[in-house]
Design brief:
elongated, 88 residues, mainly beta, 1 helix, four-stranded antiparallel β-sheet
């Protein structure tokens, strides 16, 4: 679940960056709320950028059951934002 959250968090930040900018996760916080078993239905992960600045960005994401909206996990990330070397 941490990997899924990290992917959604980073993608949320990436979609808000201008061309020639990149990011890397520097802090990841994950809260597991409900267990996931092999019988758990398919889940949905939703992420959104909260702040995207010149050097840092933050995002939050949630893993939910699409049918019932139950929360399985949520997380936050802080990312470092930097120019791509070839874009300078």
């Amino acid at each position: 679940m941490a990997t899924i959250l990290d992917s959604a968090l980073g993608t949320a930040v990436l979609t808000a960056l201008s061309a020639g900018r990149a990011y890397t996760t520097v802090q990841l916080g994950v809260n597991l709320v409900r267990p996931v078993f092999d019988t758990t239905p398919t889940l949905r992960c939703e992420g959104r950028a909260v702040h995207v600045g010149r050097t840092t960005a933050t995002a939050e994401a949630r893993i939910v059951g699409p049918a019932d909206g139950k929360l399985y996990a949520h997380g936050t990330a802080t990312c470092a934002v930097f120019p791509l070397p070839d874009a300078a």
